[in-house]
Amino acid sequence: MLVEELRADKKLAGWLRDLESEDGPRTEATLPDAIALPDVLLDLSVPHECVNELVALRARLVADPEAMTLLGRCVARFVSDMGEIGNDWEPPAFPESTGALGRTFQVFVFIAALPYVRAYHRQRDIPADISRRTLADLGRNLAVHRRRTGTTGLLVPWWIGLHFHGELYQLGRLQFQRARLGGHTGRAAEAAGFGTGPGGLCLSLHIADFRGPLSPDACDQSLDLAREFFARHYPDERYEVAVCHSWLLDPQLKRYLPADSNIVRFQERFRAAHEETKADDRAPVAFVFGDPELPVADLPRRTGVERAVGDHLRAGGHWYGGQGWFPL
Fold first, then answer.
1. pLDDT tens over the chain, length 328 residues
2. Which of 90, 210, 293, 301 has a Cα-to-Cα distance from 135 of 20 to 30 A?
3. What pairs with residue 204 in β-bridges?
């Protein structure tokens, strides 16, 4: 049984004890039945090839009372501060011995939490189409996991937690996360006279995969949507600054890409907040080629970005995460 496997793991046994000892409301986790679940999954853009497996795993989960109790505790903990910035809570990665059910447990946490996030969206009067496109990132990330591993699961469950916790929204081409300024960006914005600083509110920009070109027009439209969206649905929060932490802001890209490329024009929106000195070669390989473990020598050269990332690494160079910001 799933919980027995977790108790056999020293680190996870401690996590279980802490979760069971937490005070607060208890939630009986409910999942859509086997007939309704496929439609729920398809509404979340879950890849078709994952649907039958998740329906079968649902049957195993609901047949295990201890696992359902654990699911209820996880959901209760996750939704207890719905909408607050910086939740940063998720079940830890389960050991391989828990198999497919352990690998997909967090998917079922998000499915069971779905009524709560939808209620929160209604409370904030979030339009149904924005809610749907935001939560559909669950399916996109299941597709990324399947592309990399050939199995059903989530590579970074905490990321989907932002969507299902009311912290992040898909608005056109870009995603916008309600966040707080870090030290570098906060001090830069403060020095520029924008009346904010470290710990102040900001919108953190994210570039989702499978969304078409990162064109200037698409970004402009997203930013216009974001200004209107947060002013209307979060009038109690003032967002004056947008930030982005990404390898896409590494200025070295300008050595390889034309000045009118979408990536270079995206970079030019930002003011540099900090020059990163710790290399991160895995991030561009993962995002451009789908797998950070691919041998550098074999990286394809089909597009300008592929040639830039691969050729730079093959020449002995490194890539770095960029930190940028601009006033909204």
1. 898 888 888 888 888 888 888 876 666 779 999 999 999 999 999 999 999 999 999 999 999 999 999 999 999 999 999 999 987 777 888 988 899 999 999 999 999 999 999 999 999 999 999 999 999 999 999 999 999 999 999 999 999 999 999 999 999 999 999 999 999 999 998 998 888 899 999 999 999 988 899 999 999 999 999 999 999 999 999 999 999 999 999 999 999 999 999 999 999 999 998 888 899 999 999 999 989 999 999 999 999 999 999 999 999 999 999 999 999 9
2. 293
3. 177, 243
Cβ–Cβ < 8 Å for 163, 303: no
Residue written as token pair 């597709």: 143
Are the CB atoms for 173 and 222 separated by under 8 Å? yes
CB 175 within 8 A of CB 168: yes
3-state secondary structure of 178: strand
**Whole-number Å distance between alpha carbons of 121 and 312:** 44
Distance CA 206, CA 187 (A): 21
Q: Which structure tokens are listed for 23?
A: 């005070």
pTM (predicted TM-score): 0.94
Q: Which are the contacts of 131, defined by CB distance < 8 A and separation ≥ 6?
A: 118, 121
User: Of 97, 106, 108, which Cα lies nearest the Cα of 6?
Assistant: 97
> 95: left (phi > 0), else alpha (psi -120 to 50), else beta?
beta
Q: CB–CB of 164/190 below 8 Å?
A: no
Residue whose entry in the numeric block shows the structure tokens 């501060």: 81
Terminal C-alpha separation, the chain: 51
Q: In what helix (H) or strand (E) does residue 170 lie, and over which residues does it extend? A: strand 168-171
Instruction: With CA atoms as reference, report the closest residue to 101 among 153, 66, 65.
Output: 153
